[in-house]
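Example S7 (structure tokens).
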């Protein structure tokens, strides 16, 4: 007997080369079978997803989810259920001093997967910037010992390399971050921005499997020049270094991404979702996926860039609907058309597809609506952002009301048929 049968959707799972109309059966939190015409009477519960896209639960490789205790943190629970993101990789919000908090207060209570790239700086992203100013906090031995204690939580190392963050210390924080990554035998994700250090200074520290995030930022001068990747960027690509979009609040320029795509450099797609990007301009991963498609990426490439590619980059068992995999599933309504989307420098394009998440399952369980807390006082919202947030709250409240009569639960969480009851 299956616990759940998603019936008749368009299943797109680049990891298994699948793009076809099929049913997805779930048993004991795992994908049991994917095929057309699976027998309905073998399922305790079914959902009609005809006309919808059925994707592996999305993997967002660059987020900041250590909320309520850092400058940047957002609570992922009010976002996951409406976006299909079932694996949240926190990119350096916690260093050695905060990793236990990330585990206890975010990762463990979450009904989905939360992983961490440990910040080489012990203080992580408690503040807006400057975490490398006091080198004492960049204690590689301490970070390695803490990471070892949280083995499966930590899937990589993070270091922000821009002039404000490193202060007078130049490349020393990067040297320590690379040493930490080597000790842990995990990838290093380096954030680039306003240098120095510049990409050419950073590149020698990166090896195959490492990641450069904010790869389509309009502010790092040495990614793309005259519409072509620089020699530095081409060398990084050739040495197997991965590029990550990391949209964030200031790190996305259509011209840069399009130049990279034209040169055959296809990044993984992530939001860099934090308290300054979640109210726009990034909003959420499905919206950023729309931007990637607006820049010319196909649906399949875009899905790969938010599922098995980031999962593979960090060695995570996620991002596929292969039988045996965790039943992390994201169902979307996909509207074709021309939908305006923007970068952070005033650039605008038309997305050919708008993805609206209609159901998100983590380990086979439907995530239920959760409303977000109001933003912290240090995040100024415009009047339009306030209005949009109020509207969203109202929508969540009405969704929850919709689920508070017993018959609503029958519809959303069907009970076993009479003959199956004891
Ligand atoms: Zn970030």
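Recovered sequence:
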């Amino acid at each position: 007997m299956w616990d759940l049968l998603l019936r008749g959707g368009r299943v797109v799972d680049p990891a298994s080369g699948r793009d076809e109309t099929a049913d997805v059966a779930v048993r004991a939190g795992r994908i049991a079978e994917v095929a057309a015409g699976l027998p309905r009477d073998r399922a305790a519960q079914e959902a009609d997803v005809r006309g919808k896209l059925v994707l592996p639960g999305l993997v967002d490789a660059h987020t900041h989810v250590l909320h309520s205790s850092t400058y940047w943190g957002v609570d992922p629970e009010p976002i996951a259920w409406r976006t299909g993101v079932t694996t949240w990789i926190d990119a350096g919000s916690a260093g050695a001093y905060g990793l236990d908090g990330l585990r206890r207060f975010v990762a463990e209570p979450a009904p989905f997967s939360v992983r961490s790239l440990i910040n080489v700086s012990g203080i992580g992203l408690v503040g807006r910037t400057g975490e490398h100013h006091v080198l004492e906090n960049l204690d590689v031995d301490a970070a390695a010992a803490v990471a070892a204690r949280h083995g499966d939580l930590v899937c990589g190392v993070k270091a922000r390399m821009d002039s404000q963050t490193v202060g007078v210390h130049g490349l020393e924080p990067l040297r320590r971050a690379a040493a930490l990554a080597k000790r842990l035998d995990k990838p290093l994700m380096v954030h680039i921005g306003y240098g120095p250090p510049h990409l050419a200074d950073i590149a020698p520290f990166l090896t195959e499997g490492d990641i450069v995030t904010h790869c389509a930022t309009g502010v790092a001068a040495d990614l793309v020049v005259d519409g072509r990747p620089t020699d530095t960027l081409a060398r990084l690509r050739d040495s197997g270094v991965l590029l990550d979009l990391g949209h964030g609040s200031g790190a996305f320029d259509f011209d840069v991404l399009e130049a990279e795509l034209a040169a055959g450099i296809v990044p993984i797609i992530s939001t860099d979702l934090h308290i300054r990007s979640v109210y726009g301009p990034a909003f959420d991963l499905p919206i950023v996926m729309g931007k990637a498609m607006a820049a010319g990426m196909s649906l399949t490439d875009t899905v790969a860039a938010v599922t098995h590619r980031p999962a593979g980059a960090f060695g995570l068992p996620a991002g596929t609907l292969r039988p045996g995999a965790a039943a992390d599933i994201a169902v979307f309504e996909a509207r074709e058309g021309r939908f305006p989307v923007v970068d952070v420098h005033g650039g605008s394009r038309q997305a050919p597809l708008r993805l609206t998440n209609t159901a998100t399952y983590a380990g086979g369980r439907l995530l239920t609506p959760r409303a977000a807390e109001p933003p912290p006082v240090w995040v100024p919202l415009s009047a339009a952002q306030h209005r949009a947030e109020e509207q969203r709250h109202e929508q969540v409240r009405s969704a929850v009301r919709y689920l508070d009569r017993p018959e609503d639960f029958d519809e959303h969480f069907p009970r076993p048929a009479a003959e199956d009851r004891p």
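Notes on this example. Residues 62, 64, 91, 246, 248, 272 surround zinc ion (CB under 6 Å).
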